[in-house]
Design a protein that fits this description.
Elements: E1 8-10, E2 30-33, E3 39-40, E4 46-54, E5 61-68, E6 77-86, E7 91-99, E8 107-117, E9 119-130, E10 143-146, E11 156-158, E12 163-165, H1 167-172, E13 179-184, E14 190-194, H2 196-201, E15 218-222, H3 233-238, H4 242-247, E16 251-253, E17 259-263, E18 269-276, E19 284-290
Parallel strand pairs: 3-9
Antiparallel strand pairs: 1-6, 2-4, 4-7, 5-8, 6-7, 8-9, 10-19, 11-12, 11-13, 13-14, 14-16, 15-17, 17-18, 18-19
């Protein structure tokens, strides 16, 4: 008997399978899966569902993904699956482990299993995540920030209230400022976001050197999602990693199109979308953010 181990990592919110899916057996492998029940969001509990994949030809690949009830990809979670191949690779007994982690949003989702045996079939298995209702995020208007040698525009931004400040106002605001935008000549040179604490201690920018109480903002880039796909506070919080945020050490090179998640001075989460950046320290950048 030939055995095959199949594993997949999927950017999706944590989840749970209930019920069985359907597929057209003439269009590819047929997939069946046992029902499990309801899983509480954020419980961390792991549940297991078993099933079979059968085909007239050898099954050459199996993949797993999670989507919303309307087929939009969701993130992030991990699905571990182990498949055993028998009968000349035309039949797989599969086991799918499903876990709801912190950041799982209550709602209806689907586990999709794609199997290929000559042709590909996709079978969807609906599931439900229960838990506290998520609140919608609030998007900002487009905001313009000046690099530190721009005489007209402020470089510092208070993400909690959307205030853009020049250096004197930012220092007077104490810990309120969350992020500073500028163009840095330090290697690696380019457009950067700075925490106020870094701007004072390490940037070499004289305008920030006497800041009495700069906030040591934690933030980092995120990938695998779009700005528009993050619509709830639960989904936004799930993007944040303390480990990744600490690794930025207060300075992060950015480019147009980057997404950066920030833990603000008021303990809130904000997702910044970098729209444009400057080519020198006299230019400007545009951003928008949701919180």
């Amino acid at each position: 008997m030939l055995k095959k181990i199949l594993t997949a990592s999927v950017t999706a919110f944590s989840l749970f399978v209930v019920g069985c899916g359907t597929t057209d057996p003439t269009s590819g492998p047929s997939v069946t899966l046992d029902a499990i029940g309801t899983l509480a969001a954020g419980s961390g509990a792991e549940k297991t569902v078993t099933g079979k994949i059968e085909a007239d030809e050898a099954i050459t690949s199996v993949s797993y993904s999670i989507v919303t009830a309307t087929d939009a990809a969701v993130a992030p979670t991990i699905i571990s699956a182990t498949g055993t191949a028998a009968d000349n690779n035309k039949k797989l007994d599969i086991t799918v482990k499903v876990q709801a982690l912190a950041g799982a949003v209550a709602g209806e989702y689907k586990l999709q299993i794609k199997a290929t045996a000559g042709v590909e079939s996709t079978t969807s298995f609906p599931f439900t995540v229960t838990g506290a209702a998520a609140n919608p995020v609030t998007p900002s208007e487009v905001i313009t920030l000046g690099a530190h040698e721009n005489a007209d525009l402020g470089s510092s931004l208070d993400l909690d209230n959307g205030t853009v400040m020049k250096s004197a106002a930012a220092k007077a605001a104490g810990t309120a400022a969350d992020i500073i935008y500028t163009y840095s000549s330090k290697a690696p040179a380019g457009p950067v976001l700075l925490s106020p604490a870094y701007a004072k201690a390490s940037s070499g920018i004289s305008a920030f050197s006497d800041w009495a109480t700069p906030f040591d903002t934690k933030y980092h880039k995120v990938t695998g999602v779009t700005y528009e796909s993050i619509t709830t506070d639960v989904a936004l919080k799930a993007l944040y990693s303390e480990t990744a945020a600490t690794a930025t050490a207060g300075r992060l090179n950015v480019a147009a199109g980057d997404l950066v998640v920030v833990l603000t001075s008021e303990g809130k989460y904000a997702l910044m979308n970098i729209l444009t950046v400057s080519a020198d320290a006299t230019g400007s950048a545009t951003i928008k953010y949701a919180k």
